[in-house]
Amino acid sequence: MNVNLTPQAAALLERWIQAAGGIAPALAGEGGLSWAEVRDNYGKELAAALPAPHGVTFERTELDGVPAMLVVPEDVTDDRTLLYLHGGGYVHGAVEGYVGLTGHYAKRLRARVLVPDYRQAPEHPFPTPIDDVFTAYRALLAAGTAPEKIAISGDSAGGAMVITVMRKARDAGLPLPVAGVSLSPWADLTHSGSSVQSRTGLDPLTSGEFLEKLARTFLGNALPTDPDASPVFADVRGLAPTLIQMGENEVMLSSGITLAGRLAEQRVRTTLEVWPHMFHVWHLLAGHMAEADEALDNAVSFITREYERAR
């Protein structure tokens, strides 16, 4: 990985990698832990390594039956609401592991953040995770949250679902959010892009082989070209302005670039940022690494402009 991390950031990255240590054995049917235990361990260890910032509260809630974590900063401006979709390959994500990132997001954006605790594979394979997050979005609207106050963001699998939720809202005739922000989206489950080979070994957090195992676990009998699983194959016309941020060392880099091109070709106002030397979802190190803070600040600026345009 060709990036000079501070000793603190390097240590936190190593703790993150160690927190994910139970995932590969579970994918192979080894390790002796249930998936619920794997997710619980991952969430607790990640939260311990990357804790919440001061000035933010967390509580459990639900969105039409979908459990969720509500993140509220001390200052909320104009009833702003961010629906944040966590990553984890649709398999091993845990909302508790995101108290750091969502806390920093909430404080910077001055918005309440709702993080759906959607069901995951292998117990609940495709399309259940996607259905759950779409249910959560509909619940926000049904509860009276004005669409001009809603933005959607997410990372990895959650970054792909940002696009898919907006598509589903469009197709259902529902109002769209003001903006979508996809952080390191896992947008092509065929893994056909060149970066899957060229970046394996550079990205410390994932590899082409690991992604294939995640995809097989998530998809079940579905095809990787299904547009709900891989938004690079979707009709994305009419979606809200979208920001995509990718790390240059990511194995998913090619698919993120392809997704941005797909959006732009279909006349969606699209911003693509490729960050030299950055790894998958480096944003989780917000508060501890300058590049993570700057990327998150860019995301917040993007959303804030769209809130102001919608006023």
TrEMBL record:
Domain Alpha/beta hydrolase fold-3 stretches: 82-283
Keywords: Hydrolase
InterPro entries assigned: AB_hydrolase_3 (IPR013094), AB_hydrolase_fold (IPR029058), GDXG_lipolytic_enzyme (IPR050300)
Signal peptide range in chain numbering: none
Pfam families attached to this UniProt entry: Abhydrolase_3 (PF07859)
Alphabetical list of PANTHER family matching this protein: AB HYDROLASE SUPERFAMILY PROTEIN C4A8.06C, ACETYL-HYDROLASE LIPR-RELATED
Stated family: Belongs to the 'GDXG' lipolytic enzyme family.
Identification of the protein by name: Esterase
Biological source species: Streptomyces hygroscopicus
